[in-house]
Write a structure and sequence with these properties.
Blueprint (H helix, E strand, L loop, with lengths): L2 E2 L26 E5 L4 H12 L3 E6 L11 E3 L7 H8 L4 E4 L12 H15 L3 E5 L24 H30 L4 E6 L2 E3 L8 E4 L8 E3 H10 L9 E6 L1
Parallel strand pairs: 2-3, 2-5, 3-4, 5-6, 6-7, 7-11, 8-10
Antiparallel strand pairs: 1-9, 9-11
Helix pairs in contact: 1-5, 2-3, 3-4
The protein binds NADP nicotinamide-adenine-dinucleotide phosphate.
Length: 250
C-alpha cells in the first residue's frame, strides 16, 4: 500500500507527518478549465486555482452561482454538444472536473457529461484531466472493470462488511455512474486521474491528508471537499498519477 500526506502521493508517510501545505504552488502559471465550478468540490477548485494565480476558465450550467469572476462558458452537460465545449478547453494545460450526481435521482450525468468533455479535449488536443469519483467505485462492475474485487484492498473490516453495504444501498446508482465515467477515461487515451474520496465534508482546507495510489485508505471515512480540490491541483505536477485512481482521506 502506498499512503502519504498531501505533499507526495507516492512515498509512504504516516498520516499527518508532514507540515500542512495549504497552497498548491506550481512552477508556472497554468491555463486550467474547471467543469462544474459551482459544485462543492468545483467551488473549491475555482477558489484554490485562482488563489494560486492560474489562468482559469469556468464551465457551469448556472454561472450565476460562480464565486469568482473568471472567463465562463455556460453549458448543461446533459444536453450540450461536445463541439460547443471545444472553445472552453482549447489551449488548456489541464481540465479539472467536479461534475457528478449528488443523489441516486441525479445519477446519470457523470458518464455522459465526461464523455462530452473527453470528446472536446480529443478534438482540441488537450491531454490532462482530473475528475472526482468515489471511494466505493473500485468494487463496482463497469465495462472497464467487468470483474471487480469484492472489497477495495484499502478498506478495513468495518467498511468492507458494514459501511460499503449501507453506501451501496443509498448511493448505488451514483457509483454506477461514476464507474462508467472512469471507464470512459480509461478508454480515452487522455492523461487522466480520478480521485476517489469517501464521505465529503465542508470543513476548511487542511492541506494534510492521506492518499493512496489505486486504493482506499484504511479507516478513511471522511475528507473535506477543499482537500479533494487541493489534491486535484497537486496531481497536475505528479505525472506518476496519470492513468490511476487515488484514494484520499483525512
Ligand atoms: N457527497 C459525498 O459525500 C460524496 C462522496 C464521494 C464522492 N462524491 C462525488 O463527488 C462529486 C462531487 O461532489 P460535490 O459534493 O462537489 O457535488 P455537488 O456539489 O452536487 O456538485 C456537482 C456539480 O455538478 C454540476 N452538474 C450536475 N449536473 C450537471 C449538468 N447537467 N450540467 C452541468 N453541470 C452539472 C452541478 O452544477 P449546479 O451547481 O448547477 O448544480 C455542480 O456544479 C460527485 O460526483 C459526487 O457523487 C460525493
Amino acid at each position: 500500500m502506498s499512503t502519504s500526506t498531501a505533499n507526495n502521493t507516492q512515498a509512504p508517510h504516516k498520516a499527518g507527518a508532514a507540515i500542512a501545505d495549504k497552497t498548491v504552488r506550481h512552477h508556472q502559471q497554468l491555463k486550467l478549465t474547471i467543469f462544474a465550478a459551482t459544485g462543492g468540490v468545483g467551488r473549491q477548485l475555482l477558489e484554490q486555482a485562482v488563489a494560486a494565480g492560474h489562468d482559469v476558465t469556468a464551465v457551469a450550467r448556472n454561472p450565476g452561482k460562480l464565486t469568482r469572476h473568471v472567463p465562463t462558458v455556460t453549458a448543461d452537460l446533459a444536453t450540450t454538444n461536445p463541439a460547443a465545449l471545444e472553445p472552453a478547453v482549447a489551449g488548456a494545460d489541464a481540465v479539472l472536473s467536479g461534475l457528478g450526481p449528488h443523489s441516486n435521482a441525479a445519477a446519470g450525468i457523470a458518464a455522459p457529461g465526461t464523455r462530452s468533455i473527453v470528446a472536446a479535449m480529443q478534438a482540441t488536443g488537450v491531454k490532462r484531466i482530473v475528475v472526482v469519483s468515489a471511494a466505493p467505485v473500485g468494487t463496482v462492475t463497469s465495462s472497464a472493470n467487468p470483474h471487480p474485487p469484492k472489497h477495495d484492498p484499502g478498506d478495513g473490516f468495518l467498511t468492507r462488511y458494514l459501511l460499503s453495504r449501507i453506501a451501496q444501498t443509498a448511493f448505488g446508482k451514483v457509483y454506477d455512474d461514476l464507474a462508467a465515467m472512469e471507464a470512459i477515461l480509461r478508454d480515452s487515451r487522455l492523461d487522466w486521474t480520478a480521485i476517489r474520496p469517501p464521505r465529503l465534508t465542508d470543513k476548511p482546507l487542511s492541506g494534510s491528508y492521506r492518499t493512496a495510489l489505486g486504493q482506499n485508505l484504511r479507516g478513511g471515512l471522511f475528507v473535506p471537499r477543499a482537500d479533494v480540490a487541493h489534491l486535484m491541483l497537486k496531481v497536475l505536477e505528479q505525472p506518476h498519477t496519470i492513468g490511476h485512481t487515488i484514494g484520499i482521506a483525512t
